[in-house]
Amino acid sequence: MSGLILKLAPHERVLINGAVIENGDRRSRFSIVTPNANILRLRDAIHPEGVRTPVSRVCYIAQLVLSGDADPKEAEHQLLRGIEQLSQVLTDRDSRDSLARASRAVLEGEYYPAMRHLRGLLPREERLMAATRQ
Known about the structure:
The N and C termini lie far apart (54 Å). The chain folds into 2 domains: 40 residues, no CATH class; 88 residues. The chain contains 5 helices and 5 strands. It is globular. It is α+β, with helices and mostly antiparallel strands. α3 runs antiparallel to α4. A hairpin with a 2-residue loop joins β2 and β3.
């Protein structure tokens, strides 16, 4: 049997197809066998008030798809446009690689990996923004 294996810490919450599920007192592990299920660990979620930068805005769009609050086809265009805009600013090799992976994931309809690749750019974006403030 294949699928996504989720390993949850005690009391960790996860959003699966719009339903919030909270783990019990012990670590647990379970398989999601339904293909294309929308899954978001709430510890990874960006809260709306935390969306203040270009990278966080693009991450948030992917998150809205995962939470079921955005249509994937409409979000795909916004995500690809946002990734293209980020690629004009984040030009180092590692950033370009993350953006390319995020773009491929969006094109394949894989929004969690897209969000994960984009989230990896948040620390880099913060350093760049801090350097421009000085």
